[in-house]
Protein backbone atom coordinates (compact mmCIF):
# COMPACT_ATOMS: atom_id res chain seq x y z
CA UNK A 1 0.00 0.00 0.00
CA UNK A 2 1.19 3.50 -0.87
CA UNK A 3 0.75 4.96 2.61
CA UNK A 4 1.16 8.59 1.57
CA UNK A 5 -1.43 8.15 -1.17
CA UNK A 6 -3.73 6.46 1.34
CA UNK A 7 -3.39 9.44 3.71
CA UNK A 8 -4.19 11.79 0.82
CA UNK A 9 -7.28 9.79 -0.17
CA UNK A 10 -8.51 9.52 3.43
CA UNK A 11 -8.01 13.26 4.06
CA UNK A 12 -9.83 14.11 0.81
CA UNK A 13 -12.79 11.89 1.76
CA UNK A 14 -13.10 13.74 5.06
CA UNK A 15 -12.64 17.17 3.51
CA UNK A 16 -15.16 16.54 0.72
CA UNK A 17 -17.64 14.71 2.94
CA UNK A 18 -17.95 11.55 0.87
CA UNK A 19 -16.31 8.90 -1.29
CA UNK A 20 -17.80 9.98 -4.61
CA UNK A 21 -16.82 13.64 -4.15
CA UNK A 22 -13.31 12.58 -3.13
CA UNK A 23 -13.06 10.42 -6.26
CA UNK A 24 -13.97 13.42 -8.42
CA UNK A 25 -11.42 15.63 -6.65
CA UNK A 26 -8.68 13.02 -7.04
CA UNK A 27 -9.66 12.11 -10.62
CA UNK A 28 -10.12 8.45 -9.77
CA UNK A 29 -12.99 6.01 -9.24
CA UNK A 30 -15.07 5.63 -6.06
CA UNK A 31 -13.93 2.01 -5.95
CA UNK A 32 -10.30 3.07 -5.72
CA UNK A 33 -11.15 5.54 -2.95
CA UNK A 34 -12.97 2.82 -1.02
CA UNK A 35 -10.04 0.43 -1.50
CA UNK A 36 -7.47 2.93 -0.16
CA UNK A 37 -9.53 3.73 2.93
CA UNK A 38 -10.22 0.05 3.60
CA UNK A 39 -6.55 -0.87 3.24
CA UNK A 40 -5.58 1.98 5.58
CA UNK A 41 -8.09 0.81 8.20
CA UNK A 42 -6.84 -2.75 7.84
CA UNK A 43 -3.21 -1.62 8.17
CA UNK A 44 -3.98 0.40 11.31
CA UNK A 45 -6.36 -2.18 12.77
CA UNK A 46 -8.92 0.50 13.53
CA UNK A 47 -12.07 1.88 11.93
CA UNK A 48 -11.56 5.46 10.77
CA UNK A 49 -14.97 6.34 9.35
CA UNK A 50 -18.56 5.60 10.31
CA UNK A 51 -20.44 5.23 7.04
CA UNK A 52 -24.21 5.25 6.45
CA UNK A 53 -26.22 5.82 3.31
CA UNK A 54 -26.75 9.47 4.25
CA UNK A 55 -23.74 10.66 6.17
CA UNK A 56 -20.12 10.03 7.01
CA UNK A 57 -18.44 10.74 10.34
CA UNK A 58 -15.02 10.26 11.88
CA UNK A 59 -14.31 7.84 14.67
CA UNK A 60 -12.00 8.89 17.50
CA UNK A 61 -9.11 7.18 15.72
CA UNK A 62 -10.15 8.83 12.47
CA UNK A 63 -10.10 12.29 14.03
CA UNK A 64 -6.57 11.74 15.36
CA UNK A 65 -5.33 10.42 12.02
CA UNK A 66 -7.02 13.17 10.00
CA UNK A 67 -5.24 15.90 11.98
CA UNK A 68 -1.86 14.18 11.59
CA UNK A 69 -2.45 13.31 7.93
CA UNK A 70 -3.09 16.98 7.13
CA UNK A 71 0.21 17.94 8.75
CA UNK A 72 2.10 15.23 6.85
CA UNK A 73 0.58 16.26 3.53
CA UNK A 74 1.39 19.93 4.17
CA UNK A 75 5.00 19.06 4.99
CA UNK A 76 5.33 17.02 1.81
CA UNK A 77 3.86 19.86 -0.24
CA UNK A 78 6.31 22.31 1.36
CA UNK A 79 9.27 20.04 0.63
CA UNK A 80 8.16 19.72 -2.99
CA UNK A 81 7.77 23.49 -3.27
CA UNK A 82 11.28 24.08 -1.90
CA UNK A 83 12.72 21.52 -4.32
CA UNK A 84 10.85 23.10 -7.21
CA UNK A 85 11.95 26.63 -6.25
CA UNK A 86 15.56 25.49 -6.03
CA UNK A 87 15.37 23.95 -9.47
CA UNK A 88 13.80 26.99 -11.09
CA UNK A 89 15.96 29.61 -12.73
CA UNK A 90 15.95 32.91 -10.80
CA UNK A 91 14.01 35.48 -12.79
CA UNK A 92 11.70 38.47 -12.47
CA UNK A 93 11.57 41.58 -10.32
CA UNK A 94 13.26 41.32 -6.92
CA UNK A 95 12.36 44.06 -4.42
CA UNK A 96 15.01 44.62 -1.74
CA UNK A 97 14.94 46.95 1.25
CA UNK A 98 18.14 47.94 3.07
CA UNK A 99 19.48 50.59 5.48
CA UNK A 100 20.79 53.71 3.79
CA UNK A 101 24.45 53.76 4.85
CA UNK A 102 25.00 50.01 4.65
CA UNK A 103 23.21 49.89 1.32
CA UNK A 104 25.42 52.57 -0.21
CA UNK A 105 28.74 51.43 1.25
CA UNK A 106 28.50 47.65 1.13
CA UNK A 107 25.59 46.54 -1.04
CA UNK A 108 25.79 48.94 -3.97
CA UNK A 109 29.20 47.59 -5.11
CA UNK A 110 27.76 44.04 -5.11
CA UNK A 111 24.70 44.63 -7.31
CA UNK A 112 26.58 44.62 -10.65
CA UNK A 113 28.10 41.24 -9.77
CA UNK A 114 24.72 39.82 -8.83
CA UNK A 115 23.08 41.14 -12.01
CA UNK A 116 25.87 39.68 -14.14
CA UNK A 117 25.38 36.31 -12.47
CA UNK A 118 21.57 36.42 -12.74
CA UNK A 119 20.71 38.38 -15.90
CA UNK A 120 17.02 37.42 -15.73
CA UNK A 121 16.52 39.12 -12.34
CA UNK A 122 15.54 42.81 -12.26
CA UNK A 123 16.62 44.42 -8.98
CA UNK A 124 14.45 47.05 -7.30
CA UNK A 125 16.44 48.37 -4.30
CA UNK A 126 14.96 50.82 -1.79
CA UNK A 127 17.20 52.34 0.89
CA UNK A 128 15.80 53.68 4.15
CA UNK A 129 16.76 53.52 7.81
CA UNK A 130 13.08 53.15 8.71
CA UNK A 131 12.14 49.56 9.56
CA UNK A 132 9.58 48.58 6.94
CA UNK A 133 6.95 45.85 6.97
CA UNK A 134 8.16 43.59 4.16
CA UNK A 135 4.77 42.03 3.50
CA UNK A 136 2.76 45.25 3.83
CA UNK A 137 5.10 47.17 1.50
CA UNK A 138 5.69 44.35 -0.97
CA UNK A 139 9.40 43.59 -0.46
CA UNK A 140 10.85 40.16 -1.22
CA UNK A 141 13.89 40.60 1.02
CA UNK A 142 15.23 43.02 3.60
CA UNK A 143 18.65 43.67 5.09
CA UNK A 144 18.51 44.37 8.82
CA UNK A 145 21.11 45.62 11.28
CA UNK A 146 20.07 43.97 14.53
CA UNK A 147 21.19 42.61 17.87
CA UNK A 148 18.22 40.41 18.61
CA UNK A 149 17.58 38.60 15.34
CA UNK A 150 14.23 38.95 13.61
CA UNK A 151 11.16 38.04 15.67
CA UNK A 152 8.81 38.64 12.73
CA UNK A 153 10.51 37.15 9.67
CA UNK A 154 12.73 34.28 8.66
CA UNK A 155 16.37 35.40 8.78
CA UNK A 156 19.88 34.37 7.78
CA UNK A 157 22.94 35.96 9.35
CA UNK A 158 25.32 37.42 6.77
CA UNK A 159 28.00 39.09 8.92
CA UNK A 160 28.81 40.78 12.23
CA UNK A 161 29.88 44.36 12.88
CA UNK A 162 31.48 45.75 16.02
CA UNK A 163 30.18 48.88 17.66
CA UNK A 164 32.85 51.38 18.69
CA UNK A 165 32.77 54.45 20.91
CA UNK A 166 35.08 56.99 19.26
CA UNK A 167 35.87 60.60 18.51
CA UNK A 168 38.19 62.73 16.39
CA UNK A 169 41.72 63.30 17.76
CA UNK A 170 41.18 67.06 17.60
CA UNK A 171 38.05 66.83 19.75
CA UNK A 172 39.86 64.74 22.39
CA UNK A 173 42.84 67.11 22.38
CA UNK A 174 40.45 69.98 23.05
CA UNK A 175 38.11 68.33 25.57
CA UNK A 176 40.35 65.68 27.13
CA UNK A 177 40.40 61.89 26.86
CA UNK A 178 37.81 60.16 29.09
CA UNK A 179 39.41 57.74 31.55
CA UNK A 180 36.22 56.33 33.09
CA UNK A 181 32.56 56.18 32.03
CA UNK A 182 31.79 58.93 34.55
CA UNK A 183 34.09 61.26 32.59
CA UNK A 184 31.68 61.08 29.64
CA UNK A 185 29.30 63.42 31.49
CA UNK A 186 31.71 66.26 30.66
CA UNK A 187 31.67 65.53 26.93
CA UNK A 188 29.33 66.10 23.99
CA UNK A 189 27.51 63.28 22.30
CA UNK A 190 26.45 62.88 18.68
CA UNK A 191 23.45 60.58 19.04
CA UNK A 192 21.80 58.15 16.64
CA UNK A 193 18.06 58.31 17.29
CA UNK A 194 17.27 54.70 16.37
CA UNK A 195 19.36 53.35 19.27
CA UNK A 196 16.75 54.38 21.85
CA UNK A 197 16.96 57.12 24.50
CA UNK A 198 19.28 59.73 22.93
CA UNK A 199 20.91 60.74 26.21
CA UNK A 200 21.78 57.22 27.41
CA UNK A 201 24.49 54.78 26.40
CA UNK A 202 24.86 51.32 27.89
CA UNK A 203 28.46 50.06 28.03
CA UNK A 204 29.76 46.71 29.24
CA UNK A 205 32.65 46.89 31.70
CA UNK A 206 35.64 44.51 31.41
CA UNK A 207 33.64 41.88 33.36
CA UNK A 208 30.59 42.24 31.12
CA UNK A 209 28.50 44.21 33.61
CA UNK A 210 26.27 46.85 31.95
CA UNK A 211 26.84 50.48 32.88
CA UNK A 212 24.39 53.20 31.82
CA UNK A 213 25.92 56.61 31.19
CA UNK A 214 24.13 59.85 30.37
CA UNK A 215 25.94 62.29 28.10
CA UNK A 216 24.82 65.75 26.95
CA UNK A 217 23.63 65.55 23.35
CA UNK A 218 25.20 67.94 20.85
CA UNK A 219 23.39 66.53 17.81
CA UNK A 220 20.80 63.80 17.30
CA UNK A 221 20.18 62.24 13.88
CA UNK A 222 18.51 59.24 12.33
CA UNK A 223 21.36 58.75 9.85
CA UNK A 224 24.76 57.23 10.62
CA UNK A 225 26.61 59.20 7.94
CA UNK A 226 25.43 62.46 9.50
CA UNK A 227 26.67 61.31 12.92
CA UNK A 228 30.01 60.28 11.40
CA UNK A 229 30.45 63.63 9.65
CA UNK A 230 29.79 65.51 12.90
CA UNK A 231 32.30 63.39 14.78
CA UNK A 232 34.96 63.88 12.10
CA UNK A 233 34.37 67.63 12.43
CA UNK A 234 35.11 67.41 16.16
CA UNK A 235 31.56 67.95 17.43
CA UNK A 236 31.52 65.09 19.90
CA UNK A 237 31.78 61.38 20.68
CA UNK A 238 29.86 58.84 18.59
CA UNK A 239 28.91 55.19 18.90
CA UNK A 240 28.75 53.69 15.44
CA UNK A 241 29.30 50.29 13.76
CA UNK A 242 32.59 49.45 12.08
CA UNK A 243 30.85 48.93 8.75
CA UNK A 244 30.45 52.72 8.75
CA UNK A 245 33.58 53.95 10.56
CA UNK A 246 36.07 51.10 10.07
CA UNK A 247 38.18 53.02 7.55
CA UNK A 248 38.21 56.12 9.78
CA UNK A 249 39.52 54.04 12.68
CA UNK A 250 42.24 52.46 10.57
CA UNK A 251 43.28 55.86 9.16
CA UNK A 252 43.28 57.51 12.60
CA UNK A 253 40.59 60.04 11.67
CA UNK A 254 38.62 58.63 14.59
CA UNK A 255 40.10 56.96 17.68
CA UNK A 256 38.44 54.63 20.19
CA UNK A 257 37.23 56.06 23.49
CA UNK A 258 37.30 53.85 26.62
CA UNK A 259 38.28 50.80 24.52
CA UNK A 260 38.19 48.51 27.56
CA UNK A 261 34.43 49.11 27.79
CA UNK A 262 32.59 47.09 25.18
CA UNK A 263 29.39 47.67 23.23
CA UNK A 264 27.62 44.48 22.04
CA UNK A 265 28.17 43.53 18.40
CA UNK A 266 25.39 43.76 15.85
CA UNK A 267 24.40 41.26 13.16
CA UNK A 268 23.80 41.91 9.49
CA UNK A 269 20.76 39.83 8.55
CA UNK A 270 18.92 38.92 5.38
CA UNK A 271 15.24 38.72 6.34
CA UNK A 272 12.35 37.46 4.25
CA UNK A 273 8.66 36.85 4.96
CA UNK A 274 8.70 33.06 5.41
CA UNK A 275 10.87 29.98 5.10
CA UNK A 276 8.04 28.32 3.18
CA UNK A 277 7.93 28.60 -0.59
CA UNK A 278 11.05 30.76 -0.91
CA UNK A 279 11.37 31.78 -4.56
CA UNK A 280 14.46 30.97 -6.59
CA UNK A 281 15.38 34.66 -6.97
CA UNK A 282 15.23 35.29 -3.20
CA UNK A 283 17.21 32.15 -2.43
CA UNK A 284 19.80 33.16 -5.04
CA UNK A 285 20.27 36.62 -3.51
CA UNK A 286 20.56 35.27 0.04
CA UNK A 287 23.20 32.75 -1.02
CA UNK A 288 25.03 35.42 -3.04
CA UNK A 289 25.18 37.85 -0.09
CA UNK A 290 26.21 35.12 2.34
CA UNK A 291 29.12 34.23 0.06
CA UNK A 292 30.06 37.90 -0.44
CA UNK A 293 30.30 38.53 3.31
CA UNK A 294 31.82 35.17 4.23
CA UNK A 295 34.78 35.29 6.59
CA UNK A 296 36.00 38.58 8.04
CA UNK A 297 34.08 41.45 6.42
CA UNK A 298 36.10 44.15 4.72
CA UNK A 299 35.06 46.73 7.31
CA UNK A 300 36.68 44.79 10.18
CA UNK A 301 40.34 45.22 10.93
CA UNK A 302 42.72 46.59 13.53
CA UNK A 303 41.46 49.78 15.05
Topology overview:
Blueprint: H1 3-16, H2 19-26, H3 30-44, E1 49-51, E2 56-58, H4 60-87, E3 92-98, H5 100-107, H6 111-117, E4 121-127, E5 141-146, E6 154-161, E7 163-167, H7 169-175, E8 189-192, E9 200-204, E10 210-214, E11 217-221, H8 224-232, E12 238-241, H9 242-251, E13 255-256, E14 266-272, H10 280-292
Parallel strand pairs: 3-4, 3-5, 8-11
Antiparallel strand pairs: 1-2, 5-14, 6-14, 7-12, 7-13, 9-10
Helix pairs in contact: 1-2, 1-3, 1-4, 2-3
- What percentage of the residues does DSSP assign to strands (E)? 15-25%
Rg (C-alpha, Å):
29 Å
Terminal CA distance reads: 67 Å
The domain tally reads 3
Strand runs, count = 14
CATH architecture of the largest domain: 3-Layer(aba) Sandwich
Order of neighbouring strands in the sheet with most strands: 4-3-5-14-6
CATH superfamily of the largest domain: Periplasmic binding protein-like II
What does this structure look like?
This is DNA-binding transcriptional LysR family regulator. One of its GO terms (molecular function) is DNA-binding transcription factor activity. Keywords: DNA-binding, Transcription, Transcription regulation. This protein folds into three domains: 3-87, Orthogonal Bundle (Arc Repressor Mutant, subunit A); 92-157 and 266-292, Periplasmic binding protein-like II (D-Maltodextrin-Binding Protein, domain 2), CATH 3.40.190; 163-256, 3-Layer(aba) Sandwich (D-Maltodextrin-Binding Protein, domain 2), CATH 3.40.190. Helix 1 packs across helix 2 (19-26), helix 1 (3-16) crosses helix 4 and helix 2 crosses helix 3. The longest helix has 28 residues, at 60-87. It has helices at 3-16, 19-26, 30-44, 60-87, 100-107, 111-117, 169-175, 224-232, 242-251, 280-292, and strands spanning 49-51, 56-58, 92-98, 121-127, 141-146, 154-161, 163-167, 189-192, 200-204, 210-214, 217-221, 238-241, 255-256, 266-272. With 303 residues, it is of the alpha/beta class. The chain is elongated and about 95 Å long. It has ten helices and 14 strands. The protein has a five-stranded mixed β-sheet with strand order 4-3-5-14-6, covered by helices on one side. Strands 12-7-13 form a three-stranded antiparallel β-sheet. It has a two-stranded antiparallel sheet with strand order 1-2. It starts with a helix and ends in an 11-residue tail after the last helix.
Amino acid sequence: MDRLRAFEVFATVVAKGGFAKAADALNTSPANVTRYVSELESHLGSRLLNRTSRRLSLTEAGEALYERAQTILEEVAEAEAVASATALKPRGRLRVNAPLSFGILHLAPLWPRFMAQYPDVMLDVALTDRVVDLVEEGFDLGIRISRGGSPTYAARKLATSRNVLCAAPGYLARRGVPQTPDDLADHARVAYSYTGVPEDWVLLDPEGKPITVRIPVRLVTNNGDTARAAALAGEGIIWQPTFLIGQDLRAGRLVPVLPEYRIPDIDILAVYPSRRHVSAKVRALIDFLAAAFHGQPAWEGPA
